[in-house]
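User: Okay, second chain of the day. Same drill as before: sequence in, structure tokens out.
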Amino acid sequence: MGERQSFYVHLFSLGSSNPVRLCAVCYTSLMDSVEVVVLNGSPGSGKSTLADAVAEQLRATGVRHAVIDLDEFARVYPSDVEALNSLKWQNLSATWPNYTTIGELKVIIPVLIDTTADLESLKQSAPSKSLTICTLTAPIDVLKSRVTTREPNEYWQERLRGLVERYAKRSDSEKFADFEVSTHNKQIGEAATEIISHLGWIPTLPKVSGTTK
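Assistant: Same drill. Structure tokens below.
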């Protein structure tokens, strides 16, 4: 079953009285007006920070956009990783129709994608005109330093440092990127401009291609 087909089945199963949600033809048109960029990367790579910075540059130039922070969609305690992961995609799938009805929209999603299952869940939960993965990079010692400084106590500091190490050891099959942007020794605004230039979301910025490290 294709991404859109499965998405329609999910919508029909909701039993909504909203006629827009019950019209597959309408949804094809609505989804074709939405472009998505995923800001992927290790903990400490700057996903949420860059999402806000990209959003601000889009706002300043009048580009309609939205930021969807999937970590906040599954901020539950106590729960195990698998349960939280499932909740994250379920919540995205449930709210995605509301974003598509806005019309032409650029959507920024900061989230770690390191398995094929996660990538497929993302595609099925948020079908769109285009999906681009930008992976943010920085040296592992820099990533560990960032999460240590950021997190409020030793419990979270140790947990996030462990996630940084695990991310660094992922196999080639767990690496997903259409392009990369380094967040090391670079101003936040500069990295945001670099991302937008790759995407071509601001017409006045020259579009770039390839991998930037």
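The domain at 31-199 is CATH 3.40.50.300 (Rossmann fold).

User: Thanks, on to the next one.
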